[in-house]
Amino acid sequence: MAEIIKNLDITALVHGGRGIGRHEGQAVFVPMTAPGDRVACRVVRRKRRFIEAELCAVLVPSPLRREPPCPYFGDCGGCQWQHLPYREQLRWKEQLFQELMLRNKVMPADRLKPIMAARDEWCYRSRVQLKCHDTAARLLVGFYRHGSHFVVDVDTCRIVSPHIQRALQLLRAELQAAPCRGSIPQVDVACGDDGAVRIILHVLPEGVRQLRPWLQDFARRHDFNACLQSGRKDTLEVVQGTGDLTVTVDQPGMPLRYGPGGFVQVNSAQNRNMVAAMLALLELRGTENVLDLFCGMGNFSLPVARRAGRVVGVEDYPPSIASARGNAEANALDNVEFHAADAAGIISGTRGNVPNLVILDPPRTGNYQAARQLLTIRPERILYVSCDPATLARDLVPLVNDGYQVLASQPFDFFPQTWHIESMTLLTRIEPQSGREKTLE
Predict the structure, then answer these.
(1) In whole angstroms, how large is the CA radius of gyration of the chain?
(2) Adjacency order of strands within the sheet including 19-23
(3) CATH 2.40.50.140 intervals, the chain
(4) What SS3 class is residue 19?
(5) Alpha helices of 295-406 — where are they, by DSSP H?
């Protein structure tokens, strides 16, 4: 029988979104709790120094709590903090980000800026992955339960845009009669700033022939772009519309198109805020030589190119580079070039023409190798955009230990109702380059 811990007092939140309390000298981590709660919880994993548990009951609720507005909260794994008022979510995100940076000694406290709140805590997501599971009764369409591959069937999601909500309802209704519906493990839905919707239907190979015409008809009737994917991204096939969506950044507005499989931030309004904050922080003068690593379709490269001397963007996904080149041409920018290449190889190839500024925007896993390789060319400034404070702190360590200091670091809330934190950190070189090049093991 599983062990139950009674009367555990939750005192704080930790990285990952769980509440923490102490039981017999050990830390106990419990999801879906709030500081000030007294709870009963079930032990699911006991380690030497800590315990992982699941919530059984809130015995005494924290005064910080609110009633989660979503009926699926606690079952669906998409959100972790709907039970906290938005001001409390922001306070804890700011505090957790600051604690992690200070604990890793990558910057002093006076370089940390306040978190930038999202404009809307609801209806902000412009992209979702819907999971599917076929049963005898119906095809379940929704999101995974936390920590499992069990699909929670949902008919509404409070954090997606209205355009995606409409697509979700249509998909739930019409996928029930689709041929080979058991061959559909996932549907990706995204929308552009203009409301255009793109659906990517993931299909097992045996269902491709029958589902292609079904998807084409569905998308045509509802005016959606639609793609079919039967494996990795190189199997993407546009079956209706152009497949492209558009977001807008900068002032005056700069439209940027991106295709299926390409990356774009899920919170378009907050992305515009980050681009504006980046430009204000960099104070570009029109002469800078800029290298943008993990550039995608030009989200940062192209606004910077309006204000810098020369920009080189690098991304290892060739279709995103094709989008970036098209966006540069559409916005009449001829001082920027894009390359489909690995970041590490580009860094090593720039030693004869060291950029003044390097922008680093890696995936959630960060890129410790690229951060260390920047020490071989030692640009004057490095702007690191991160979606995981833990990998950010790790990647900053070699830089701040070898000639760089943080000028400013700011968290951004791109993901209300979750514990995730985006951030932007500017570093400057404090050692003269002195003509040396370091060789890293």
Answers:
(1) 23
(2) 4-9, 38-46, 50-60, 26-30, 19-23, 12-13
(3) 1-64
(4) strand
(5) 301-305, 318-330, 343-348, 368-373, 389-400
- CATH number for 127-245: choose from 3.30.930.10, 3.60.40.10, 2.30.30.40, 2.40.50.1070: 2.40.50.1070
Question: How far apart are alpha carbons 354 and 67 in whole angstroms?
Answer: 54
Got the DSSP string for 378-431? Answer: --SEEEEEES-HHHHHHHHHHHHTTTEEEEEEEEE--STTSS--EEEEEEEE-S
Q: Is 387 a catalytic residue?
A: yes
pTM higher than 0.90 = yes
Tens-binned pLDDT, residue by residue, of the chain (441 aa): 689 999 999 999 999 999 999 999 999 999 999 999 999 999 999 998 999 999 999 999 999 999 999 999 999 999 999 999 999 999 999 999 999 999 999 999 999 999 999 999 999 999 999 999 999 999 999 999 988 999 999 999 999 999 999 999 999 999 999 999 999 999 999 999 999 999 999 999 999 999 999 999 999 999 999 999 999 999 999 999 999 999 999 999 999 999 999 999 999 999 999 999 999 999 999 999 999 999 999 999 999 999 999 999 999 999 999 999 999 999 999 999 999 998 877 887 776 688 999 999 998 888 888 899 999 999 999 999 999 999 999 999 999 999 999 999 999 999 999 999 999 999 999 966 544 444 333
Which position has the token pair 């000028």?
A: 407
Domain boundaries for CATH 3.40.50.150 within the chain: 90-119+267-429
Determine the Cα–Cα distance for residues 316 and 54; give it in Å rounded to an integer. 40
Choose, from 76, 132, 227, 387, the residue flagged as catalytic: 387
CATH architecture, domain defined by 90-119+267-429: 3-Layer(aba) Sandwich (3.40)
Do the bridges between strand 4-9 and strand 19-23 make them parallel or antiparallel, or are there none, so unpaired? unpaired
CA of 348: how far to CAs of 232, 242, 314, 359, 436, in Å? Answer: 29, 37, 13, 15, 14
Beta bridge partner(s), residue 29: 20, 52
CATH 2.40.50.1070 domain residues, the chain: 127-245
Fold of 1-64: OB fold (Dihydrolipoamide Acetyltransferase, E2P) (2.40.50)
CA distance 11 to 38: 9
